[in-house]
Amino acid sequence: MKIIIINGPNLNLLGKREPEIYGNQDFETYFEKLKSKYPSVELSYYQSNVEGEIINELQEVGFDYDGIILNAGAYTHTSIAIGDCVKSITTPVVEVHISNTFSRETFRHQSYISPNAKGVVIGFGLKSYDLALESFL
Q1: Is 30 a catalytic residue?
Q2: Which of 22, 30, 75, 129 is catalytic?
Q3: What is the pLDDT of residue 107?
Q4: Secondary structure of the chain in the HEC alphabet?
Q5: Residue range 34-60: mean pLDDT, rounded
Q6: pLDDT tens digits for 60-90?
Q7: Measured torsion, CA atoms of residues 53, 47, 128, 94, in degrees rounded to the nearest 10
Q8: CB within 8 Å of 71: residues ≥ 6 apart
Q9: What pairs with residue 52 in β-bridges?
Q10: Of 71, 85, 51, residue with least CA distance to 4
């Protein structure tokens, strides 16, 4: 089984950025633990701060992988283009958010990805990725 995690803007700063919201662990360390926990899954990881690069990656893997775990960061709430891309690919996508977006600013309550996603996992910290991965198993 091939699963990719695609992270959007500012998620490269996990462990440094607003630890009271996002925690103290960097994503690379977490990703290594996740790979160890699920050795039978071929896991890969991609991160970009650039909207078009995220779309390019979704299009690249969106017809060949078994699942995509997508945390588009703030693009979740602004990018019709990423939402349209998720709609156009055949690989199922689970939308993930580390924080509970509904307990934050009102603009974070809207998602352009959710209507086209297999499911949404919100608010369980980095464990949200584990839960999304479990949904594909």
Answers
A1: no
A2: 22
A3: 67
A4: CEEEEEECCCHHHCCCCCHHHHCCCCHHHHHHHHHHHCCCCEEEEEECCCHHHHHHHHHHHCCCCCEEEEECHHHHHCCHHHHHHHHHCCCCEEEEECCCHHHCCHHHHCCCCHHHCCEEEECCCCHHHHHHHHCCC
A5: 98
A6: 999 999 999 999 999 999 999 999 999 999 9
A7: 30
A8: 5, 6, 7, 8, 11, 95, 96, 97, 98, 128, 129
A9: none
A10: 71
For this structure, is 77 an active site residue?
A: no
Which domains, and CATH codes, for the chain? Answer: 2-134 (3.40.50.9100)
User: 45, 75, 97, 112: which is the annotated catalytic residue?
Assistant: 97
pLDDT at 48: 98
Q: How many CB atoms lie within 10 A of CB 85?
A: 22
What pTM value is reported for the model? 0.93
Residue 9: both structure tokens together: 């803007």
